[in-house]
Amino acid sequence: MIPLVVVGCGGHGREVLTIARAVNAAAGRQRWQLLGFLDDRPAEENLKRVQRLDVPYLGGLDWLRDAPADTHHVIGIGDPRVRRAVGQRLDRYATPAASLVHPAATIGPDTEHGPGFVAFAGARVTTNVTIGRHVHLNQNATVGHDSTLADYVSVNPLAAVSGDCQLAEGVLIGTTAAVLQGLRVGRDSTVGAGACVVRDVPEGVVVKGVPAR
Ligand SMILES: CC(C)(COP(=O)(O)OP(=O)(O)OC[C@H]1O[C@@H](n2cnc3c(N)ncnc32)[C@H](O)[C@@H]1OP(=O)(O)O)[C@@H](O)C(=O)NCCC(=O)NCCS
């Protein structure tokens, strides 16, 4: 059993916990020992929700500073830039980041991913895809062949990243959006829900609509 804490008591974090549980159920053993949640400022309502999942709230992020060296963490925060800020802080504690792939996700051959990768149920990655650290593919998100997703990218539910795409660090692809083949989305840019990206997106912008502007 590998000790695991989920960072973030919000909805995304609690969903990430359910992925760890699904991994355990599929393995038929407790691969991940779910120690609890960390959050510096948990909302009262979320503490109640955590309690209903039968997993303790352990405290703030500094809890990891004194944790045993084999305690893994996974960042359960959906916003890529908040996840990056937390990830950079947790790097100081040198505890390893866990990757969680839901048993109902498919990750194809010739694909690599960094630590902290989370694939929700129904996420699909085909082949020759390079995925960085702390990338999250939400439910039913798809990533086509030969694409690169840099650190801290989030692909939200039902979004489709076509083949040969390059998503730079911190990019958010909103729910049901599409990125057409061969395109690049620049660092820290956001593609709005339902958008269709038909040309390269520069750094640090929000685009939305069909075609995305
Ligand atoms: C595009 C987005 C980033 C814009 O956020 P924002 O800057 O806070 O925008 P606002 O809500 O202030 O809306 C600004 C305008 O854009 C419009 N708008 C917002 N999101 C839009 C979208 N996805 N597509 C088209 N128009 C959109 C609003 O209607 C509003 O139009 P108006 O000025 O004519 O009234 C956000 O709406 C979005 O789509 N985020 C992704 C959400 C997502 O994936 N959620 C799933 C979580 S699992």
UniProtKB/TrEMBL annotation:
Transmembrane regions listed in the UniProt entry: none
Residues annotated to bind substrate: 78
GO MF entries: transferase activity
Any single Pfam family the record assigns to this protein: PglD_N
Record-linked CDD domains: LbH_AT_putative
InterPro entries: AcTrfase_PglD-like, Hexapep_transf_CS, PglD_N, Trans_hexapeptide_repeat, Trimer_LpxA-like_sf
List of catalytic residues: 145 (proton acceptor)
UniProt entry keywords in alphabetical sequence: Repeat, Transferase
Annotated site (Increases basicity of active site His): 146
PglD N-terminal domain sequence ranges: 4-89
Protein name: PglD N-terminal domain-containing protein
Biological classification of the source: Bacteria, Bacillati, Actinomycetota, Actinomycetes, Micromonosporales
